[in-house]
Amino acid sequence: MPRIPDERPLSPQPGIIDELRRRLPTASVLSTPAELAPYECDGLTAFRQRPMVVVLPETVEQVQTVLRLCHAARVPVVARGAGTGLSGGALPLEDGVLLSLARFNRILHIDPDNGTARVQPGVRNLAITEAAAAHGLYYAPDPSSQIACSIGGNVAENSGGVHCLKYGLTVHNILRLTLIGIDGELFEVGAEALDSPGLDLLALMTGSEGMLAVIVEITVKLLPRPERAQGLLAAFDSVERAGAAVARLIASGITPAGLEMMDNPAIRAAEAFVHAGYPEDAAAVLICELDGFNAEVSFEVMRVRELLLDAGATEVRTARDDAERLNFWKGRKAAFPAVGRLSPDYYCMDGTIPRRELATVLKRIEALSERYGLRVANVFHAGDGNLHPLILYDANVPGELDKAEDFGGDILELCVQVGGTVTGEHGVGVEKLNQMCVQFDSDELTQMHAVKAAFDPHGLLNPGKAVPTLHRCAEFGAMHVHHGELKFPELPRF
Ligand SMILES: Cc1cc2nc3c(=O)[nH]c(=O)nc-3n(C[C@H](O)[C@H](O)[C@H](O)COP(=O)(O)OP(=O)(O)OC[C@H]3O[C@@H](n4cnc5c(N)ncnc54)[C@H](O)[C@@H]3O)c2cc1C
C-alpha cells in the first residue's frame, strides 16, 4: 500500500452491522469478505481497503436511516457511485460504512420545455443523454468514463469531459440538488429557476467529494443537439508548437466544442489499438471539434484551419463526414486503455494550467521523465489546460510505484508553480492530499475544515479525503510559507 489517508483513530462499531440489518432489507447489507471485495477500491487501484460493511439502500428514507445510525454511533460513511473515481474518493474505511447509491438509478422526469431532467444519483452519465435524445436534447458534460460513471459521482467530483471547454463543467450544467446531511436531514440547494436566493450552496456542494452530504437527487440542464459538428485533426512536429497553437486558437475568439491533444507515445498507442489513421510520426496531434449552426460551423472550420497552419501544423485534416469525425475521436477515447498496452501499469495525473503555459509545462514534464527514468504519454483536454500525463511504470519492479508517485507529485507542483491547480477533474480524494498542502496555505485549509465542520461536526462523511490536516502538511513539509513566516511552528516537521 502506498501513502495512507490522514491518520484517524479507528472506531470499531460491530453492533452497527446488526442494527443496519434490522432496519434495511436483507439484500441491502453486505458484510462477508467475498461481498465486500468488489468495493475495496475505486479507479485508483493502488489504494485498497475493505469496508466494515456495504449498504445498498433503495429509498431516500433508507439513506436517512443509515446516516442517522452512523451519526448516533459516530461511524464514518463513504458514499460511492460507480466507483470509477481516479483519486480514491470512494476508497472505503476499515471501520466505516460504504454507502452505495447504485440502486438510485432512475431518471425521474424529463422536461423538454424547460430543458431539464430530474435524475437519481446512480444514473449513468450517458444514460441521461440517451434518454434525452428522443427530445433532441443531451447532457453536455461527457467524461471519458461516461458509459459507467454515475451523475452523483460527477457532481461530487465536478467532473469534466471533452465538451466542457464550450459547455462548462458539471457545476455549470446542474440546477438543483437534494441531499441528506449526516444527521439524516433532507435539504435542497439551488433551484429549478436560473437563479436561487442566498449563498451559492449548489457550487459548494459540487466537487465536495462526499464530505458535506449525500446527494439523492439532481436536476440537470439539457441542451439542444447542435445542428452540425465538424472534426479537424492537426499534426505538429513539436509538442511545444501544438501547445502554443491551442493558446492561439482560443485567443482568436473561437471556442471549439472540444480541443484535445495527444503526444507521440499516445498517438502510437492509440493507432495500434484502434487504427484511426493518425499520423504516427507526428510529435503531437490536436483533435478539434466545432459545433453549432451550419453556417457558423463552416466559417469556423475555415478560420481554425488557417489558424492551425499558421501556428505551424504540418497537416490539417477536415473530417469529410460524421464517420470520419468519430474516427478522429476513436483513438482519443481509447487512448487510456491503449496506453495500458505500452506498460504493465500507468499512473494518470490530473492538473490544470493556464493555456499559455502548455508548451513550457510539457517540456518540463519531458525533462522530469528523463530524470525519473519513467516514460510518459500525454493525452489531455488541451483547450481547458487540463493535463493528463500518464506515467508508465511496472509495479513489479521494486520502488517503481513510489518513483511514479513522486514524479506525479512533481508534475502537480509544477502546475501550481505556473499558476495552475493540482486538480483538474478527478478530484483530490486520497491521491492529492499532499499537493493540496502546496496549493493552499494553512489559513485556507483551516477555512475548508470549518466549512466541513459546519455540515459535519463530527467529521463522519468521507473523513481523511480531499482536505489535508495541518499536521499532514507539516509532515509533508510543503506548507505554504508566506513572507518567510512559518505557520504553526509548534508542529513537528520531518
Ligand atoms: C477510464 C476513465 C476515464 C475517466 N475520464 C474522466 C473524464 O474525462 N473526466 C472526469 O472528470 N473524470 C473522468 N474519470 C474519473 C471518474 O469517472 C469521475 O470522477 C466520475 O465522476 C466518478 O463517478 P463515479 O460514479 O464513479 O463516482 P465514485 O468513484 O463512486 O465516487 C467519486 C466521489 O464522489 C463521491 N460520491 C459518489 N456518489 C455520491 C453521492 N451520491 N453523494 C455524495 N458523494 C458521492 C464519493 O464519495 C467519491 O468521493 C475517468 C475514470 C476512468 C476510469
Summarize, please.
This protein has 494 residues and is α+β, with helices and mostly antiparallel strands. The chain is 34% helix and 19% strand.
Structural features, described:
By secondary structure, the protein is α+β, with helices and mostly antiparallel strands. The protein has helices at 15-23, 33-36, 60-73, 125-132, 151-157, 164-167, 201-205, 239-251, 264-274, 294-310, 322-333, 335-339, 358-372, 400-417, 433-439, 442-455, 470-476, and strands spanning 29-30, 53-55, 77-80, 97-100, 107-111, 116-119, 137-138, 174-180, 186-190, 214-221, 223-224, 228-236, 258-263, 284-292, 315-318, 345-348, 351-352, 376-380, 386-387, 389-393. A hairpin with a 5-residue loop joins strand 8 and strand 9. Helix 8 (239-251) runs antiparallel to helix 13 (358-372), helix 14 packs parallel to helix 15 (433-439) and helix 15 (433-439) crosses helix 17. The relative contact order is 0.12. Flavin-adenine dinucleotide is lined by residues 42-43, 78-86, 89-90, 101, 121, 143-145, 149-150, 152-154, 156-157, 159-161, 209-210, 214-215, 336, 425-426, 462.
SSE map:
Elements lengths: L14 H9 L5 E2 L2 H4 L16 E3 L4 H14 L3 E4 L16 E4 L6 E5 L4 E4 L5 H8 L4 E2 L12 H7 L6 H4 L6 E7 L5 E5 L10 H5 L8 E8 L1 E2 L3 E9 L2 H13 L6 E6 H11 L9 E9 L1 H17 L4 E4 L3 H12 L1 H5 L5 E4 L2 E2 L5 H15 L3 E5 L5 E2 L1 E5 L6 H18 L15 H7 L2 H14 L14 H7 L18
Helix pairs in contact: 1-3, 8-13, 13-14, 14-15, 15-17
The structure holds flavin-adenine dinucleotide.
The site of flavin-adenine dinucleotide has 36 residues, from β3, α5 and β10.
